[in-house]
Amino acid sequence: REHRVEVATGRPHVAYKETIGRVATGEHKLSKQNGGPGQYAHVILEVSPGAPGTGLVFEDRSRGGSIPREFVPAIEHGVQGALGRGVIAGYPVVDVAVRLLDGGFHAVDSRPAAFEVAASIAFRKAAEAADPRLLEPIMKVEITAPEELLGEVLADLHGRRGEVVEVVQQGGARVVTALVPLRALFGHTGDLRSRTQGRAFASMRLAHHARVPAAVEATLREAQPK
After folding, report:
1. Is the whole-model pTM more than 0.90?
2. Are 140 and 177 in contact, with CB atoms under 8 Å apart?
3. How far is CA 145 from CA 141, 161, 180, 222, in A?
4. Alpha-carbon gap, residue 187 to 191, rounded angstroms
């Protein structure tokens, strides 16, 4: 108001991620002829869940010259691009292992761009068949409150799908450590202040990502453009 700046406000968005839950394969054959130079690429991929924090692990297991080595980097690049938009709700895909199993090429019509497109589509097909999962950020929350207000703090955490890790004594106060989905923490600071008459304070930091409940995932799926 002081500087007469227009401000657009809205509810914060959660940075969800996606991953997969089982091994699956995807295949795509790109073949186009438009009168000029054609496009041909055939890619067969296998995907499997990766260890947390590994991102993308790509491996070429094709044999017998089915795909010339010069096209493999384009295939990996196509997979990398497909990770940016998951199959559930369009969030980034993390922690997957991708293996190039087989495919085919044309001596005249194959080029890197064609293999990049074919790999991107093959990955999406594989991800759709690999039990895709939506992950949400889980925050480690520490709340310090007077002893007599511990019940109010615990009740609030319970209503936010919080998992209490420990409660310790600190002088005349209690320090509660809990794991709470970020989605449930919007408005937490104000609610905590109201419940405790301003006598409690909290801090939070990212702990890890975990699979969202089925009801939340269904809501996010429905919110995606058709």
Report:
1. no
2. yes
3. 13, 20, 17, 39
4. 6
